[in-house]
Amino acid sequence: MQFSLSNNAVLRNKVTLFLCCCLALASCEDPNELGVGLVDDNISGKYTDTLTVNVSTVYLDSLATSGQGTLLVGEFNAPYSGEVDVNAVFPVSLGGAWTLAEDAAYDSLRLILPLGGYYYGDTTQAQTLEVYRLNSDIKTSRLGPYFFNEQPASFFYADNAIYNISTVATAPEPLGAVTYMPRPVAKDTLAVPLSDEFGQELISLRKAADSRLTDATGFLNYFKGLQLTSNGGSAVLGFPVGGVKVRLYYSETVNDVKTAKTKDFTITNPGLQFNQISTDLEGTALTGLERGGEAVPAAQTGNVSVTQVGAGLVIKLEFPYLNNLKTQLTPELINRAVLIVEPQNNTIQYPYPVPPALMLYNTNRTNLPLSPASFDPLVEGSPSLGANYDKEKNRYEFNITPYIIQQLKMQNTAGNALLIAPPTVAATAQNPAPTTLRDVSRLVVGGPQNVTLKIYYTTIK
User: Fold this and answer.
1) Where in the sequence is the signal peptide annotated (predicted)?
2) Which of 359, 397, 361, 396 is nearest to 377 (CA)?
3) Which of 4, 24, 108, 315 can bridge 420 by disulfide, Cβ–Cβ 3.0-4.6 Å?
4) CA distances from 389 to 343, 357, 436 (A)
5) Contact 275, 164 (CB under 8 A)
6) pTM for the whole thing?
7) What domains can be seen in the chain, in order of their start residue?
């Protein structure tokens, strides 16, 4: 009796053999070194790095910057990305109960700013910080829900949040100022002298038991908060919200002894602290980009694309020929897909180093970051697709195998794309904005020549 295998059975045997080879494929860079030919001459490992990647820059309309835990303040003007100006706005609360003796005497008033070690830019230049009293309330808002559901259109929007373009009215004259040489790594505490007139007023109101200094709501209506701005210098510095306070120094006589005392007015609602981040692209290759406008191809910006998410700039990557790839390759035969992003060589050094890590976000023709691209798009909480900067290779290497496989399984991938931006921490009830805008570092890519998609796959003859 003779037995014969159908064509389908032969194919099943080959697929089974292919699956056994996948572990070997996963650890190899060069398809010629895979060794699969030693197992079966009908199976071979290959890769392609010629799949077109379109690279462009998107200027996002706005991003939620409240509740990030860090006051960012400063300015700098960098090649390719232009001038960035960052101000911090925050409320000040009455704090706990405060008793004051009748003989209390005012000494001084200071804004205490503990340096957290974060900086970006050139810290060798003197910087002047100015403090302005707010004349209007800090208000949260909600932006851009999709019409068919209640979710924000952008992942960088949030309910009850405040945005990088939000404004709050301030007094015309500063309440205080200080000029200093930044020493962020030393983690010093910076004390900005504030108006003696205002300090005396705080003492007088408390002595009079005025509700503005005895009731939390009354105090907030009286003292709505502060805006911290910068003049001069060429760096942005970060100050942890938890240590920021307005400290009133005064003295009381206790048992005929003059005793120094302090009263702290702190930030007790960190969700209302936000950072204003503005950008001037004039004079750069990105001149003419419109906030909330279309993606501009690198070919139209001197082969330069930029991600600086605090300023609203993100790099967009499109894979226009994935549909064509489906006619040649089934998703089951893909072993690995690696996206290699190389910064432009003259943009990685001090004082404007590249971000230590980046993440990929799903987008479409809206150019909005819709969600983090994840390892398993069907599983909530699945790890996001990100990469650390490899200093030796001068590149980020993203394993985007699940993304490519998902795209190949879709009927139509037209409009689907990825955005490059810093990693985020998901929003919480306490901090409704996703935590991503704690810095203003940037990535400059020299157009498509700095972006490569390598797809490793197996062929079955």
Assistant:
1) 1-26
2) 361
3) 315
4) 10, 6, 17
5) yes
6) 0.86
7) 45-59+287-460 (2.60.120), 70-277 (no CATH)
